[in-house]
Amino acid sequence: MTQNKTADSDSGIDRRTVLKTVGVSAAAATGVAGMNTASAAAGTYTGESYNGRYYGKYVPSSYDGSEAVPLVMMLHGCTQNGDGFKDETQMNQVAEQEGFIAIYPEETEGLNGCWNWFEDSNTLRGQGQAQELSEGIVGQVQANENIDEDRIYV
Q1: How is the chain classified by DSSP, letter by letter?
Q2: CA angle 1, 71, 22 (to 5 degrees)
Q3: Where residue 30 falls among pLDDT bands split at 50, 70, 90?
Q4: pLDDT value at position 26?
Q5: Which of 152, 153, 154, 148 is nearest to 63 (CA)?
Q6: pLDDT at 12
Q7: For residues 112 and 15, which has the higher predicted lDDT (pLDDT)?
Q8: Residue 48: which region, alpha, beta or left (left: phi > 0; alpha: psi -120 to 50)?
Q9: Residue 6 φ then ψ, to 5°
């Protein structure tokens, strides 16, 4: 997976844009206290599963598989779930506008729905939840969609 990639001149989307958008969307969602005024994105949102772990996947309406697109994995916080995080951040609308695929893995086994990054088995590359997310879920999406390997973001 790409780390610390700041810009890609071919895509028109960069890490800073995604991060700013997430922050603005999350702040807006918090500010309206649950009021959802945004219209639904025009693409397709499906529930998927990898090795028993649920994740939502949004594919923008502009995607036809002919060109590789970026992939953005959204990881919810404690006491949240993937679908709620999707709604709160309104990232599907951003994915629709910018032409990337967004996925929302869900942690249900950790304390309060928290990802278990504090456990030693999940802190090293190639094992635990890190492996399940990066090689498992991302790998499954890559097998089914045309993903640009240089534009995978978490």
Answers
A1: ---S----TTTS--HHHHHHHHHHHHHHHHHTTT---SPPPSSEEEEEEETTEEEEEEE-TT--SSS-EEEEE----TT--HHHHHHHHTHHHHHHHHT-EEEEE---SSGGG---TTSGGGSSTTSHHHHIIIIIIHHHHHHHS-EEEEEEE-
A2: 105
A3: very low
A4: 45
A5: 148
A6: 55
A7: 112
A8: beta
A9: -100, -25
Q: Given this model, what pLDDT does residue 10 score?
A: 52
At residue 62, φ and ψ (nearest 5 deg) are -80, -15
pTM above 0.85, yes or no: no
- Structure tokens of 141? 């999406």
Secondary structure of residue 20 in the 3-state scheme: helix
pLDDT digits (tens, 9 = 90+) for 85-103: 999 999 999 999 999 999 9
Per-residue confidence (pLDDT) for residue 104, from 0 to 100: 97
* Matching residue, tokens 């002919």: 66
Q: Is the CB of residue 151 less than 8 Å from the CB of residue 2?
A: yes
